[in-house]
Amino acid sequence: MAAGRNGPLAALDVGSTKVCCFVASEEAGRLRVTGIGHQVSRGLRAGGITNMEMAEEAIRSAVDAAERMAGETVREVFLGVSAGKPASQTVDVEMSIGGQEITEKDLQRTLKEARASYQPEGRTVIHALPVGYTVDGNRGIRDPRGMYGETLGISMHMVSLQNSHMRNLANCVERCHLGVAGMVSAPYASGLSCLVEDEMDLGVTVIDMGGGSTSFAVFYDGEMVYNEVIPVGGGHVSNDIARGLSTTLANAERMKTLYGNALASPADEKEIIDVPLIGETDHDVANHVPRSMLVGIIKPRLEEILELVRDRLTASGFNKVAGRRAVLCGGAAQLAGVQELTARVLDKQVRMGKPIRVKGLADATDGPAFTTAAGLLSYAVRERFDEGIKMSVAEKPPKNRFLKVGNWFKENF
């Protein structure tokens, strides 16, 4: 079972440019990837489905390749999502404890109350993350169990998606005869994959630059506290090149990868690039342009993306919490000069992120483009661990109906 409590785990990252599937197992407390499959995305735009049959075919191909490599049959997957207009909201709830010792049951009751208090219309909550506790108004408490107080408060970070997007994506995966074990926000998964513990504690911004969208998340005090998606990504850079130089999208992507740079240099004027024109079959008809023209198309679009991230981060109020550190991941972040341009626009120290919590990845899949898929596996392990704790602390339900009523009175009065 792909998502069974003791079996291997499966992660599926459905993006705008590629569909990626990782199958992994736990070995001595570490994750080892045993199967990898990735396919060019079809029927998808900006992480949303535009053609159900083509998207289904791409998912089937990626999962089938991972299954063959791992020698396992995938039945459930943890699904990464970067579309559906995710909304990030912090909810504060306070409950009376009556001066008693705070127990696991009090904690679960407060968590349940916080989840129930946030019911956005037409949306589904995919993450409800406790980001801080208070006891009698005292903040900065990470674990209140064992403490005494009159009131217990909790701050929950809620991430929700549009119902229609979730249904379409889940339906597409289910048409491939796969179950959805959980949906995970792409920047959250990327953060779990490439951040070290100190970064999560001190404050950091994870920027996931994909093909159809750029998503970012703020981590502080060990947990994600803010999350947002901007519907502009590396694919828009390729479109700009194709339109500006009158070439095909395939040639634009190739030129971006081979000759592109986010920063201009004095040598750009001297280097000449051949640009095959749309509709021309003869190579001699190619347009010859200096590299500076290519850089002049790439740089403004990337600056626009990064300025949007900066402005949204400032408007959210989490810019100070995020500190002066940022981590870049995603396929579009691999373009030369992006790290330096990001540091300049955001005024932060920037490093490139890559999967650090999984073993068994080949060199081709060990870079920034695969942090989301690797992070989904880390999330799956965390979920499995949390389920084990809940099962261990859960008490057996009383058989007697009167005992059930008595327990209800104890919990509520």
TrEMBL record:
<comment type="function">
    <text>Cell division protein that is involved in the assembly of the Z ring. May serve as a membrane anchor for the Z ring.</text>
</comment>
<keyword id="KW-0472">Membrane</keyword>
<feature type="domain" description="SHS2">
    <location>
        <begin position="9"/>
        <end position="194"/>
    </location>
</feature>
<dbReference type="InterPro" id="IPR020823">
    <property type="entry name" value="Cell_div_FtsA"/>
</dbReference>
<dbReference type="InterPro" id="IPR043129">
    <property type="entry name" value="ATPase_NBD"/>
</dbReference>
<dbReference type="GO" id="GO:0032153">
    <property type="term" value="C:cell division site"/>
</dbReference>
<comment type="similarity">
    <text>Belongs to the FtsA/MreB family.</text>
</comment>
<dbReference type="Pfam" id="PF14450">
    <property type="entry name" value="FtsA"/>
</dbReference>
<dbReference type="InterPro" id="IPR050696">
    <property type="entry name" value="FtsA/MreB"/>
</dbReference>
<dbReference type="Pfam" id="PF02491">
    <property type="entry name" value="SHS2_FTSA"/>
</dbReference>
<dbReference type="InterPro" id="IPR003494">
    <property type="entry name" value="SHS2_FtsA"/>
</dbReference>
<keyword id="KW-0132">Cell division</keyword>
<comment type="subunit">
    <text>Self-interacts. Interacts with FtsZ.</text>
</comment>
<protein>
    <recommendedName>
        <fullName>Cell division protein FtsA</fullName>
    </recommendedName>
</protein>
<keyword id="KW-1003">Cell membrane</keyword>
<dbReference type="GO" id="GO:0009898">
    <property type="term" value="C:cytoplasmic side of plasma membrane"/>
</dbReference>
<dbReference type="GO" id="GO:0043093">
    <property type="term" value="P:FtsZ-dependent cytokinesis"/>
</dbReference>
<keyword id="KW-0131">Cell cycle</keyword>
